[in-house]
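Changelog-adjacent note: as of this version, every example in the card shows the full chain rather than a window. The one below runs 890 residues end to end.
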Amino acid sequence: MIKILRLNILFFFVCTCSAHAQNTLPYKNAELPVEQRIGDLLSRMTPEEKFWQLFMIPGEIKPGEERKYHHGIFGLQVSAASATGDAAGQMLQYQATEDTKALATKINGIQKYFVEKSRLGIPLIFFDETLHGLVRGGATSFPQAIALAATWDTAMMAEVAHAIALETKARGIRQSLSPVINLASDVRWGRTEETYGEDPFLSASMGVAYMGAFERLGVITTPKHFLANAGEGGRDSYPIHWSEWYLRQTHLVPFKAAIQKAGVRSIMTAYNSVNGKPSTANEWLLTEWLKKETGFKGFVISDASATGGSTVLHMTAKDYPESSQQAIEAGLDVIFQTDYEHHKLFIPPFLNGKLNGVRIDDAVRRVLKAKFELGLFENPYVDVLAIDKLVSVTKHKNISAKAAQKSIVLLKNEDALPLSATLKKIAVIGEDAVEARLGGYSGPGNGKISILDGLKNALPSTTTVSFSPGYSRKGEALTTIPSRYLSFLKDGKKTEGLHGAYFDNMNFNGKPVMERTDASINFRWTLYAPDQKLPRDFFAVRWEGLLTSDVSATFLIGLEGNDGYQLYLNDSLMVDQSVKRSFTTVTKPYFFEKGKACRIRVDFTEPVGNAHIRLVWNKDVDNPWQKMQDDAVALARQSDAVVLVAGIHEGEFQDRALLSLDHHQEELIEAVAATGKPVTVLLVGGSAITMSRWLDKIHAVAMVWYPGEEGGRGVADILTGKENPAGRLPITFPQHEAQLPLSYWHLPTGRGDDYHNLSGQPLFPFGYGLSYTRFQYSNLQLAKDSIASGETTRLTFTLTNTGDYDGDEVVQLYVRDELASVARPVMELKGFQRISLKKKETKTVQFDITPEMLEMLNAQNQTVIEAGDFRIMIGASSRDIRLKTTLNIR
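Full-length structure tokens:
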């Protein structure tokens, strides 16, 4: 009887499900194949609804404005919200005290509207940045991307990525606008810190480890920027004009690996142009190579506001609608903008028939496919109550500390490290020792540990650790004159700021096209003119008003900008840079009487665009660098050893013409070194630093990068010898900027690579890094020293830790084609392993030499393996080859 009852219940359940499936629209029926569901949904969509599935923004849904979104949207990047906050809230406001569950609840609330209230109920993909941790309060901040690359440890990278993906998915965010897999081909680029270094193979290997972890967990990754986001001079988003032959061997390599090995489902284009065509509207990149040749099945998004770059940057489209049309036709799928209202600029060709309907449907299919694969139609909401079970803050902080330890690169050590336990007084000097900077694209961190605190916690109680800042990164020689000192009469009333008159000519002729109040003079008009009424490359501005000081004193006052400016005080010409020549800063001393207004006038002309003008003085400047340095030197003299922490400024659109330390840090290092105390310099940053001025004067140097929220703990473990450093450089450190660009990966030179007054060799080569122990390489063998094309052979050698510390060695395999139909690189990284050995321990290390390692691109851009000899090299860096042999390909 019970058995019959169970069968009846089962029969009822099956019938009910079948009836439900029959009454459900096909695209909502999870039992149907994804492609069938996509086809059904696509057939029901209006042209407007199709467009909105191809439009993404950092969005905002204010009460009463929900109707704006009735058509749906691709997805949103939402802001933080307090536990009692509005579910629609404000976007892009990351709070250090953000409550994880409140954010997840907010995302659920927004998703609920689209699933239940929009016409077709298409769920959103919520997206965010996760370069080295989700950019959110409460999320773990791991070491910066370049630091993770410096571990040369794909297992470590995968562990970090899995933790980030867990924290991301738990909040309901299902797309990461990361990682950056561009090659850091010039270390002057301000975004070098975001990359995995200069080498195609290393970048691809670390990128695949990162992206694979995300994709396996059901979070889409979006590697960027497609393609080559740094151009000549290491300048951000500069145009590139490199041959297809070169690109296929270098900058395209990590993207090919992302698609074919990591299975990424999204890619972001770059702002630049590639061989004359904007990346966002480049058919060869987006359609021919990416979608047809590599078989990419995902969707391509633009960088934020990049689609309109064809109009305002590259001048290859007459207006925004045309830029939209060009991009979609070339293979872009999703337009990423920064405001809801921008849709009006890009939607016209979707509605007026100018865009091919088949191409539109292909783009929409790619987006819908991702949404179906993520399971958003069946499970659109995140389980808020499960977050604590999914995410262990303690575990993730320990992973961050371990990654920091593994990333630190010891560059020099003359018996200064590890720090002796017998030291009684240690001086820690440098602002970066307490700042705990996390690097670009970082959240606030989840309880940061500074280097100073890390050392204090790690050293014995018998050691006194004292701190002196030594320098100030915030100090400026000149500051923008703020509005509180500026005024003018407007309608008979005193108004704060200056009166600005804007002319559409260079001679201040006629009536101004526009007049307005400017609080201060600090403008960069690069992409646009000051106003739509003005041309962007032939205009003039005159600012007038009063300047009143609150003290009686003589100050330097002047202008900073790209020339074409004059400054008048009380009708007297103080600064005259009216002839356009360059970017300059010109100041003159002027005595200001307290409370007495001084008439001020600034004239500025811009004939060619890219304008920059700033009104500056040295009032309110507080940067007593000499006293700070003297205090630091005094502390060093009283100590047994010094740990000096120095750092650099960099970031997006913050490229570095000079690679030396700034803010008097080099003078500080020299002054501290002159005390005769053993000095260890720790370098905080994400790119190369030149050191010729001070390297020989100090005892030890370590690159600690931006080591994450547990960085202080990781750095202390290395300095005290609890852990042995084994990080390796993923970029080349030059001796001087004049050597740039500089990479181990290059074709043979025509004659030589030296200058008559400087070596062509680097300061520290790619793959370099020291240890507290020593490793011996021996007994290199090939299972077969001659194989047919397409075969694999095994290489083995013996690695022994001959020193007195347990430690890791990063063994690196390089290949050189000895004779080829076209010039080949002098050496190419084709394999690496991070090997842990106890002191005096020996291990056999093996590599499989696969056909992929021996492939090359011939003159016809065909991938081939040519017969002949290949030099196989095993070493500790690109300049430190320990073993070599020859493999013959028949």
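Structural remarks: The chain is about 25% helix and 25% strand.
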